[in-house]
Amino acid sequence: MNFKSKLDEQEIFEKVGKAAAKLGIKSYVVGGFVRDLILGRPSKDIDFTCVGSGISLAQEVARSFDTHVPLSVFKNFGTAMLKLDDWELEFVGARKESYRQESRKPIVEDGTLEEDLERRDFTINAMAISLNPEDFGELVDPFDGVGDLKRKIIKTPLEPGVTFSDDPLRMLRAVRFAAQLNFDIEADTFFAIAEHSDRLKIISAERIIDEINKIVATAKPSYGFKLLFASKLLHEFFPEMVDLQGVDSVDDKSHKDNFYHTLQVLDNVCQMSDNLWLRWAAIMHDIAKPATKRFNPKVGWTFHGHEDKGARMTPGIFRRMKLPMDERMKYVQKLVRLHLRPIALVKDEVTDSALRRLLFDAGDDIEDLMKLCRADITSKNNKKVQRYLENFDRVDEKLKEVEEKDQVRNFQPPVSGEEIMEIFGLPPSKIIGEIKEEIKEAILEGKIQNDPKAARKLMFDIAREKGIAPIDNKSHHQENKE
After folding, report:
1. Which end of the chain has less Cβ packing within 10 Å, N or C?
2. Partners of 24 in the β-ladder
3. Per-residue pLDDT tens digits for 226-275
4. What is the rounded CA–CA span in Å between residue 137 and residue 117?
5. Rounded to an integer, what distance in angstroms lies between the CA atom of residue 24 and that of residue 49?
6. What is the number of other CB atoms lying within 10 angstroms of the CB of residue 332?
């Protein structure tokens, strides 16, 4: 199998081949670029391997351009990287590796191309294309990676137990590639993952979450999470999600399996949005159900308060898993806390006050909250699902009407604390917050309009009830004008 015509479409491959020939070494394109080329998938990351110094090859390639090409050298790793337009090119010498039981950091030595390919994670990534003049474009495929691409399976080049014990991160990569490509994991390879899942303990949380986010970002993440669960990998880093699995029954009353419900919600969200953090909100929305599960003989199983407890659990889970602790965490936390609120609004008698409060609490995330709520409808009864979706359509319309009329999304109280202190001569104190809170509540309840004039009039009324007077005539005049 020869890819010369494909390589000729980009001059970089000929340049690398000529630079390697000038240095008297052999060079190859390897790994993911080769896999994606065969699959017809776009790729802007290219890995080059040479039987010699990868750094020297990168330096020679950089010199072959008429213009300056940014070059980064990593001597400790024996690698170098070139940035060329929107391409990222990495160069490394062929090597062989051996591992110690307590670490995933290998002992690296120079090796042949064959040794370099056999150390790679999966057969579909253990292919190379020659850049040498005598066989330019020829595929090197010692482990039948092409056959495994056709069979749509993930399989290790060597005995899988050795591969995963040496570098446990490869177990997560197996699941990630299966999820991204919609491939199966070959039976012996999967059994080895399950057998060595506890080796994941030596992998840093940062490396783990990088792979997990790639699974979450796939078109149908439930497939990847089912593999993580079945292999016991999920148990090693996300026990709270594992706890969702299972169904309890008392007196013929059962609750749904919240693990598989969560995966359905996640897939539903993926049909509406590519937002990674909305997808994480789907993962987290019922995370506290095991902790809040109770059986009531009259009503069956309940999960009262799981939305609030789930919101409280979110920062700890994000911190442990090395997910971001910034606005993205707060966004997920907010959606977890609010995810039941729109469900209460599907009734015909919903009040404008309830709609205003939801708009105020959700702010600019109201549309994403409604997507999560729609995704949360997972009944097997299609008519029931359709009825709920139609109800949410009505809620959407009501929300738009209230927002257009009252403009309460993200609103700030029209009277500031500084203004209250200045008019009444008050120091910073609890009473300032009480006045602002009463004004806010009056707006949300629809008692006054959301505008400065109405808010200032109410401010004077509240102050009078509390026995507080303005400090000068000017303020009296302002009050009378109101």
Report:
1. N
2. none
3. 999 999 999 999 999 999 999 888 887 888 899 999 999 999 999 999 99
4. 17
5. 14
6. 27
